[in-house]
Design goal:
Layout: E1 2-8, E2 11-16, E3 28-36, H1 39-46, E4 56-57, E5 61-69, E6 83-86, E7 89-90, H2 96-99, H3 113-120, E8 126-127, E9 144-147, E10 155-156, H4 163-166, H5 172-181, E11 190-194, H6 198-209, E12 214-219, H7 222-230, E13 234-237, H8 243-250, E14 258-261, H9 276-289, H10 293-300, E15 306-309, H11 322-327, E16 331-334, H12 339-352, E17 363-366, H13 370-379, E18 387-390
Parallel strand pairs: 11-12, 11-14, 12-13, 14-15, 15-16, 17-18
Antiparallel strand pairs: 1-2, 1-4, 3-5, 3-9, 3-18, 5-6, 6-10, 7-8
Helix pairs in contact: 5-6, 5-12
The structure holds nicotinamide-adenine-dinucleotide and zinc ion (2 copies).
Domain Alcohol dehydrogenase-like N-terminal: 27-155
Protein name: Zinc-dependent alcohol dehydrogenase
Family: Belongs to the zinc-containing alcohol dehydrogenase family.
Length: 391
Amino acid sequence: MRAVCWTGRNSVEVRDVPEPSILSGRDAIVRVTSTAICGSDLHLVDGYVPSMENGDVLGHEFMGEVVEVGPDIAPDTLKVGDRVVVPFPIACGGCASCAAGLFSCCENSNPNAAIAEKLYGHPIAGIFGYSHLAGGYAGGQAEYVRVPFADVGPLKIESDLTDEQVLFLTDILPTGYMGAEMCEIESKDVVAVWGAGPVGQLAMDSARMLGAHEVIAIDREPYRLEMAAAAGHTTINFDEVDVRDRLMDLTAGRGPDKCIDAVGLEATHGATHLNAYDRAKQAVRLETDRPHALRQAIVACRSGGTVSVVGVYGGFIDKFPVGSWMNRSITLRTGQAHVHRYLEPLLRRIESGDLDPTRIITHHLPLEEAVHGYEIFKEKQDGCEKVILKP
Ligand code: NAD
Ligand code: ZN
Ligand code: ZN
């Protein structure tokens, strides 16, 4: 079958790879009908999230049709022919973390937990197409994918909603929503969102849906800011103005009540799992290139406010503004999205029209053209916000 493979730093290729097969009684095989490229894939391509190997299949946002199920899956749970969206975190459903609803912290889904232990000092859970650090699972930017714990993760779509309407339930819609939910938004709140990428846009819409008084989008890409403005959000271009000054102007000098970091590693200065050369190169590029989103969010947030971090980080970051955080009673919340929790409620929100995640789709490409898709998404060319790939 054809699949999008990581073939080295800043290099992806569509290759022939063996089709997946059932390896455990709780597996299913899904024939992928739609899959998307995520900002998290860019961290893998960049090499900022380490431990990819040549030929690894990328992709953790995918949906499709069940074509095979393992012997331990009851037919009323999942059967051949079911149409499903699949959450990006792989979760067993039975460990203490899963029982607490912390599905992206599952304790049983990463057979290679020792790799993360060694690099980060702690294990991380399994994620599709997300390096050997996260279990080494083949991803869903492919014709077929093996889904472990398929009796826990996949959500059946039984209505006639299009793939485009439900695909983002796999990741970026729950992620954006969780970013807003962690803010415990009140009706008077001004919510500032760093990053007007796909995750940021859906965090903005979620913040408004949860009752925010005003939502402010911060980015440097004019077309992404225009997309946020078209959805009714206020915008700040960080290339044109000082972000903190502008936020103070907009909030009578107090700062936003709630801040969401939907940028992540792109803005990190030196994650310590990188070697010295990469750290230096990254630090130089970023010190001269753009402000640091997370630092800026902590320093700009009003005293007593919340900074909610859904941008992905790994390893350690330097120059954490601990004084601003501590002295001003800022609450920091974060996590990989616990997607399973949000599947049903957010499906209802899509059905009712409260959320329309399709507004961010700018490109549909055949899987064969994935390399072009990665390029325009990474380089912000051709107005690219979100690419859907069709195997
Ligand atoms: P993206 O790369 O398309 O968007 C990031 C945006 O941030 C870009 O538009 C970029 O111009 C902007 N940006 C860069 N530096 C900035 C700064 N200093 N201030 C403001 N904006 C800045 O990616 P995406 O798909 O929207 O994903 C965003 C982040 O969310 C990534 O780190 C991704 O890994 C992460 N993510 C997390 C989860 C989770 O479960 N927590 C899930 C999906 C994605
Ligand atoms: Zn993703
Ligand atoms: Zn678990």
